[in-house]
Amino acid sequence: MTAFAKPSPRLASRIVNGILSIKPLAALAKNRARNMMIQRAESIGVYWRQEVQTLRSRQSEAEFSSDWETELATIKNPNLIYPDYYLKSFHAYEEGNLGWEPAMEVEVAAHAVHARIWAEAGAKGDAWLRQSYHAALKEHLTSDPQTILDVGCSVGMSTFAMQATYPQAQITGVDLSPYFLAIAQYRAETRPTTDSPKPTWLHAAAESTALPEASFDLVSAFLIFHELPQTAAVAVLQEARRVLKPGGYVALMDMNPRSEIYAKMPPYILTLLKSTEPYLDEYFALNLEQAIYDAGFEFPKVVCNSPRHRTVIAQVR
Ligand SMILES: C[S@@+](CC[C@H](N)C(=O)[O-])C[C@H]1O[C@@H](n2cnc3c(N)ncnc32)[C@H](O)[C@@H]1O
C-alpha cells in the first residue's frame, strides 16, 4: 500500500481551485479572509491590532535593548536554502511565513481561528486545543519525554505549551521562518523565569535538521503537516525517525480530513481556506497512518482531540 494518493478534488473543489487561479479573485478572497479573522478576533476579546502594536513597539521599550532586526540576526541561519514549496503565499500573506507582519500576527490569528472549535470556548479555544493534544500524549506515551523536538514551532506557542506539560524536558523548537523564531526567542527571554530548561531555537527545515541521530524522546508536530506537500511530509517523518531514540515517539496534531466539518463545509468557506493553505488538498489526500508506518514507526494511534482535529501518535518500530 502506498501513502501517496493523487488528490482527486470533487467538482466543487475544482471550481474553487479554478477561481483561485485567477489572481484578482484570489487576492479578493485572501483580503476577505484576513478582514474576517481580525473582526472575529476583536469580537471575542483577542485585541489583534493592539497586540501587534505592542510587539512592534518593542524597540522603544527601555528594558530590552536589542531591536527586531538584531534579534533576527542572532537566530537566522544565513546558509539555509529554503525549499521551493515554502516560498509561497500562506495565510493571506504575500510573503508567506517570511516576514514581520505574519510573525507578529500569528499568535492572535491562532486565537481567532481556534475560538470557533468549541462553541463555548471563545478565546480559550487555542489553549483547549493544545490541552486536548497534551492529554492524548499523557495517555499514550509510556513515560514523560525528557528531550522533545517541536517541529514547525513558529513563535513558540506549541513549545511553551509543551513546556507547561513537561516542565522537566529540554525542548528544541525548529522552524523555517527566522522571523517567527525571533519572536519565539524574545518571548522566551521575556517570560517569567521558571525551573524549566530554556528552549533552544533552530532555524532549519524539519526534514533536514542536522541534529544528532537518536537524540530525542518525542518529536512533536503541532499544525505543521497541513502546510506541507506530501513529499515534504514524508521527509519530515523520516527525519523524525532518524533523530528519535529507540522507543521514542512521533506525535502530530492537525486538521482531521475525516471530520464531517470539512465534508460539509460550504464551498465559499472552502474557497477562503484554500486561498490561504496551498497544500491542503495534498494533506487531505495523504494516507498519514501509512506514511508514518513506512517511515519506520509502529502503526499509529489516532485520537480525535477536537471536532475537527486529530492527534496521531506512533512509537519507533
Ligand atoms: C501553522 S504554524 C504552526 C505553529 C505552531 N506549531 C503552533 O502551535 O502554533 C506552521 C509552522 O510550520 C513552519 N514550517 C512549515 N514548513 C516547515 C518545514 N519544512 N520545516 C520547518 N518548519 C516549517 C512554518 O514556518 C510555521 O511556523
Annotation keywords:
single chain, about 325 residues, alpha/beta, Rossmann fold, seven-stranded mixed β-sheet, 13 helices, about 45% helix, globular, binds S-adenosylmethionine
Report what the structure shows.
There is one protein chain. This protein is of the alpha/beta class and 317 residues long. The chain has a single domain, classed as Vaccinia Virus protein VP39 (Rossmann fold, 3-Layer(aba) Sandwich), CATH 3.40.50. It is 45% helix and 15% strand. A seven-stranded mixed sheet has the order 3-2-1-4-5-7-6, with helices on both faces. Strand 2 (170-175), helix 8 (178-190) and strand 3 form a beta-alpha-beta unit. It is globular and about 50 Å long. It binds S-adenosylmethionine. The site of S-adenosylmethionine has 23 residues, from helix 7 and strand 2.
Determine and state the CATH class.
Alpha Beta
What is the count of distinct domains?
A: 1
CATH superfamily: Vaccinia Virus protein VP39
Number of contiguous helices: 13
CATH structural fold name: Rossmann fold
Shape: globular
* Strand arrangement, major sheet: 3-2-1-4-5-7-6
Hetero ligands: S-adenosylmethionine
Helix content: 40-55%
Which radius of gyration do the C-alpha atoms yield? 19 Å
Helix-strand string = HHHHHHEHEHEEHEHHHHEE
Beta-strand share of residues = 5-15%
N-end to C-end Cα span: 18 Å
The main β sheet shows up as: 7 strands, mixed
pLDDT < 50 stretches:
none
Q: What's the architecture, going by CATH?
A: 3-Layer(aba) Sandwich
DSSP strand tally: 7
Structural class: alpha/beta
Kindly report the average pLDDT value. Answer: 90
